[in-house]
Structure formats: structure tokens, C-alpha cells
Amino acid sequence: MFGEAMAFSRYEQRDGGVYLEQKSIVLGRAIPGSLRWLVEPTIRRLSRHLTIASLRQTREAVCSLTAGELPSAEGRASGE
To answer: Is residue 47's pLDDT more than 70?
Structure first.
């Protein structure tokens, strides 16, 4: 592995829906120039694949819940 990855998500409910903002940060080492042409395309595809998979899983989780199953704000605050 070339480094550590971190992901941050922010959810905002408005306009009758939920907006999702995701940011991914990868901290890693520089790829040596002699290998960059070979390794970089794979790293780019993998990064794209992981981002798409994360968004798809989030969408599936949200779609699997019906409005009746979502806890109300009052229920979360009171610990129900």
C-alpha cells in the first residue's frame, strides 16, 4: 500500500431531500519516476472505483429505509 486513506462525509437535509458531500484524502509516498507510468493508471482506477463503491453503498442504505423507519429527531435526542 502506498499510504493512508481517510474519508469525510457531510449530510444536509434540505429541499425535500438529503445532500451528501464526500471528501477522500490519501496520504502517501511519491511514486518513483521509473515506475510511475506503470503504477499510476492502476492507482487512479482503484481510487475511482472505491469512491463509486462508497457512493453506491450509501445510496443503497438510504434507499433501503422507508420514511416510517427513520427515527425522529426527538427520539434520537431522548435516547429512544
So the answer is: yes
